[in-house]
Every structure is written in structure tokens, then in C-alpha cells.
Amino acid sequence: xxxxxxxxxxxxxxxxxxxxxxxxxxxxxxxxxxxxxxxxxxxxxxxxxxxxxxxxxxxxxxxxxxxxxxxxxxxxxxxxxxxxxxxxxxxxxxxxxxxxxxxxxxxxxxxxxxxxxxxxxxxxxxxxxxxx
Amino acid sequence: xxxxxxxxxxxxxxxxxxxxxxxxxxxxxxxxxxxxxxxxxxxxxxxxxxxxxxxxxxxxxxxxxxxxxxxxxxxxxxxxxxxxxxxxxxxxxxxxxxxxxxxxxxxxxxxxxxxxxxxxxxxxxxxxxxxxxxxxxxxxxxxxxxxxxxxxxxxxxxxxxxxxxxxxxxxxxxxxxxxxxxxxxxxxxxxxxxxxxxxxxxxxxxxxxxxxxxxxxxxxxxxxxxxxxxxxxxxxxxxxxxxxxxxxxxxxxxxxxxxxxxxxxxxxxxxxxxxxxxxxxxxxxxxxxxxxxxxxxxxxxxxxxxxxxxxxxxxxxxxxxxxxxxxxxxxxxxxxxxxxxxxxxxxxxxxxxxxxxxxxxxxxxxxxxxxxxxxxxxxxxxxxxxxxxxxxxxxxxxxxxxxxxxxxxxxxxxxxxxxxxxxxxxxxxxxxxxxxxxxxxxxxxxxxxxxxxxxxxxxxxxxxxxx
Lengths: 132, 467
What we know:
The complex is a heterodimer of chains A (132) and B (467).
Chain A: E1 17-18, E2 25-26, H1 29-39, H2 46-92, H3 98-101, H4 104-131
Antiparallel strand pairs in A: 1-2
Helix pairs in contact in A: 1-2, 2-4
Chain B: H1 8-37, H2 47-68, E1 81-82, H3 93-112, H4 123-142, H5 146-150, H6 152-155, H7 157-164, H8 179-193, H9 198-219, H10 221-227, H11 230-238, E2 244-247, E3 250-253, E4 263-264, H12 268-288, H13 290-298, H14 304-334, H15 340-348, H16 352-369, H17 371-379, H18 400-428, H19 432-459
Parallel strand pairs in B: 1-4
Antiparallel strand pairs in B: 2-3
């Protein structure tokens, strides 16, 4: 963890942002801005407030994408769960394995498409909510 | 405007969703487990269906938390305080004195079992494994830290301080931290696996009491009870989420787990202790599985006790490794400047619901059905009269239903842990992105624990319920 000699491309430890009020350290300036806005919210000046708002906007965008992915994954999981039901009942009823194997590619495509559709839909909804 | 972080209204929808999922899944899981071991009409479902479904519920609870609880909750970073046992100074002195006297008398009863000339029966075993290891932990996490009031070792603290006098004032080496108590707990877990007779229990009680007295007299009772005394630490962890709190002001009540969001383990040793507690509730179950028994058989040349010790230590090392890897993962993905052992200490608290789920799953039937024997042992620990009590059977006779209950308890413990991890993460980091990423790391570790413990519960069932 030695800092680079020219200081331009050092390891993360070389570019720590330190809180001027409580000596907490962060690897990212954004994290420092969020720390200031959430821990020292009553003591920050206008510039720090602006940086906090920017950092929070980036955070909100990341979370919005994350939630859309989660929703997509849940949609795909619902499709796969339906298929798991078919697998288990065919196992219990000793059905021909072909009943399980043949639809598999189609089910996988169905799940992927569901993921994409739900993700897309959630993105649209969240973007509209943020604009409003 | 925004609701406060944990307003009841915000939590209602996800809580309802998760409860529904768990109830539906528990029914399906119980059915799957029944199929795995009992006589089903058609082909039996393989047991891994149960494990996969349990892991699926845990992953699903993380997804629901991510979907519903990340939008309007604001992180409120705080600096965490260590989990503490509580303070009895707020209680009436007479009450504490009476409880300590009872605790001391019970310790004397366990010790006396090895001295009395007649056959003392199984009273000491019921006092230790039934009361101390089964009933008291259940009371600790549902009500509060009763051990703190009744601990015989705390009762002996005054005597130890008098022995200490002025001359030999040694300071406890802080470098050791909580590690001596980890060693003691592992010893206790192995000791339990060897199913000692009342005679041996008495001898070990004498050795441990002497050890504690000497320790307190050498390093001071306060330091010794806080760092080394193993039962104090056990019940500190068991009562970490309890509704009743003992404080300087006396007894206070709170919602279960309400103050857990700004708590941490007192260092890496304390976190390792919690993992040992978590693993300890599973250890007997593990030896009852085909794999555990097979390994012990393979090592039979070493003698069964040695083999049991080795298998226990290996299992503990695996659980510890998973937790350490999880701490590394959190440390890595959140890009935090806190050290890895600090991260591990902060997030150790979120494992308490898992430990409670395991303990209930492995001990509920044992503790409830043997209550008559435990009460009998309390009334007459030295077997002066022929005991007429016989255990109840209304839980242990339920077979399939009991396995379903055990699975539901294990899965519920993990779901509660995911929720607690969410609340903990939002008080540990200033950024929601960091918080969500850390939850991802914790959920990964919890999935591994779910799979391991469900495997133990379903595979060990042939070997008895509580072991």
C-alpha cells in the first residue's frame, strides 16, 4: 500500500477524504459528502450542502437501478418457481423426463424476457416518479 | 415528507409480505421434509428441495427488503457501543441477593452430586443441560438476562475481591480480549457432546468455580466477569435482543431488538464467541448426521472423545471461516476505511436472531417436554427422594410436525437476521449504496448458514431432536 511517487495514480489509501469535523475517513469524496450531510447536517455550509445533494442524487440513481434489477429478478424467479413446481410434480408422479427437459430452453428464454420487461417497466416508473 | 427510518407504517407492507412468504414456505417445507423422511404416497421429494426452498426464502427476504425498504429510509450513521450484559444496581438489593443465593445453592447442588455418598441421580444434568443450557437461554432472549441476577459466579465476586486484597494487583492482559472465553465455550460444547455423567459435571463445576475464583482474585472480578467468565458472555449474547433491559435506573422495557442497531461485538474475539454459540447449538445435531457420525467412525482409532473434539473444532472453523469471508466481502464491496475486524464486530450482532432460531429449533422440544424433570431437579437436585416425574411428550411425539417447526424456526431466524442486517447497515454507513452492498455480503453468508443448518436439522432428525 505504498503511494505512487508522482501522487497521481496512488492506491485508494493515498487519496483519503477526511471529515473536518470528526476525523472520519472515506475512500470516495461522495461518501464524505454523504457523511457530512447525514451526520453533521446542522453544521454544513452551502457548498457542502450542494455537494451532499449531488452525491445523494447519484445514490438515488444507483438505488433506482438496483431496485429495478431486484424487481426483474423477482419476476424471473416467479417464472422459474412455476417451472420448479412442474419439475417437482413430475418427479412425484414419476413422469417421463422429456416433459421436464423439452420446455427448459423456452422457460429460460421466458424468464430472461420477464426479467427484461419488469426491469424496463420499473425504470420507466422510477424515472417518471423522479421527474414528478 | 419522509417518514422516520423505522416508522411502523413503512415496515407494515414488507413485514406482511415476508410473513406471508414464510408461512406459505414453512408449510411447503414441512411437507417436503416429511416426504424426505416419512412414508409419502408417491415418490419422496429429495431433502435438498427443503434446503433450496429455505435458502430461497432468505434470498427472497433480502429482495423484498431491497425493493421496499431502500427508497425512503435515510441512513443515520452512529458509532456503535459494545453489547453489554446490563446492570443490576437498579434492582432492589434484597431481590438480587435472594436470586444470587438461589444461584449459589444450585451450583452447590451440582458440585455436591460428585461428593454425596448416595446415588444422586440425574439432578445435576437436568440443572446444567436442561435449566442452564435450555430453559435459561430461552428466557434470556424472550424476556431478559436472568443470569445476570442469579449468577453464582457474580455472587462469589465479593469473596474474590476480599481474597485479592491490596498486594497482588495484576491487570488483565487486554491483548487476550475475549479469546479465553471462546476457548472455554468450545470446551463446554465438546463437554456437552461427550454426555458426561452427573459425577463428571460436579467435578468440572468444582474446577471451573475454582478457576473463576482464582481468576477474579488475581485480575479483579470486574475484568474477569467482563472478559473471561463464559456464562456471563453467553447470556449477554442471548439477551442482546431481549425486551427487558437491566439498567442503572432499574428494569426497562423496549421492543425486541430496538437497541441492537447501534450495538457491536466488543472486538473480534467477542464476534468469534457469538459464532461459537451459533455453532454450538448445531454441534450435537451435526454429529447425529450421517456425515458427522461417519467422520467420527473414520477417526475411531483416536478414540471417540478425541474424534468428537476434532469434528467439533472443524465445524467451528468452517462457520468462523464463512463469517470471516463475509466480513472480507463487506469490507471489499463497501470500500470502507474501517478495518476488517471492525466490520466483523459491527455486523456480528445481526447473527443473534440466527443463533436464537437454531437454539429454539434444537432445544424447544427438549426444554418444554422435560420441564417436569427440570422442576423435579430444582426441588430435589441430590435425588433424596425417588423422582416420580416423567417427561411430557406433546412436542417430541410430533415427528413430522416438529421437523416442520424446526425448519420454520431456522428459516424465520435467518429472515429476522436479514431485516436486522438491513437496519444495522443503515446505521453503519453514511451511504445507502454501501449499506445495500453490505447487506448483499451478509445475505451471502446467511445463505450458507441456512443451507448448513437445514441440512443438519433434516439429516439429524433420525438421531433425536435435541441430542
